[in-house]
């Protein structure tokens, strides 16, 4: 018997095709025909949507998160986004955050300045990005001012 592990295939019931099943993601979208291993596009916006359009709505991906330029009252949050997204850094003394920087937009490398911070204080922060009507949050992270 051939090894079919990892194969994704449509199935048709025996009753003249009355039931068809194709794997879908959590939004009900079928994987595009140019799917990568695991069944989903390799790059944001790649593939063909089930409705035949050329765009495939994906939630933003946030990566390469770091904080630089930490001083007594300021810091810069750096990250990378795909696809183009509106984005903001939420920050505060707890995971309730409470403060945000000015909203920006774009894709690729992003930098967000945080100002008005308190000396020798640990801040929690996360990045919020929205694209295609879908919002992604990074995990909670911390940094401490000097």
Helix/strand layout:
Layout: E1 11-12, E2 20-21, E3 61-68, E4 74-92, E5 99-100, E6 104-115, E7 122-131, E8 134-137, E9 141-144
What does this protein look like?
By secondary structure, this protein is mainly β. It folds into 2 domains: 10-57, no CATH class; 61-144, Sandwich (Immunoglobulin-like), CATH 2.60.40.10. It has no helices and 9 strands. The strands form 2 sheets. Strands 3, 4, 5, 6, 7, 8 and 9 form a 7-stranded antiparallel β-sheet that branches. It has a two-stranded antiparallel ribbon with strand order 1-2. Strand 4 and strand 5 (99-100) form a beta hairpin. The chain is elongated, with a radius of gyration of 21 Å.
Order of helices and strands: EEEEEEEEE
CATH homologous superfamily of the largest domain, by name? Immunoglobulins
Please compute the radius of gyration using only Cα atoms: 21 Å
- CATH fold-level name of the largest domain: Immunoglobulin-like
- State the helix count: 0
Number of strands: 9
How far apart are the first and last residues' alpha carbons, in Å? 64 Å
Shape: elongated
| Portion in strands | 35-45%
The helical percent reads under 10%
Mind telling me which CATH architecture of the largest domain this is?
Sandwich
Structural domain tally: 2
The biggest beta sheet is recorded as: 7 strands, antiparallel
CATH class of the largest domain: Mainly Beta
- Alpha-beta classification: mainly beta
Low-confidence stretches: 7-22, 33-49
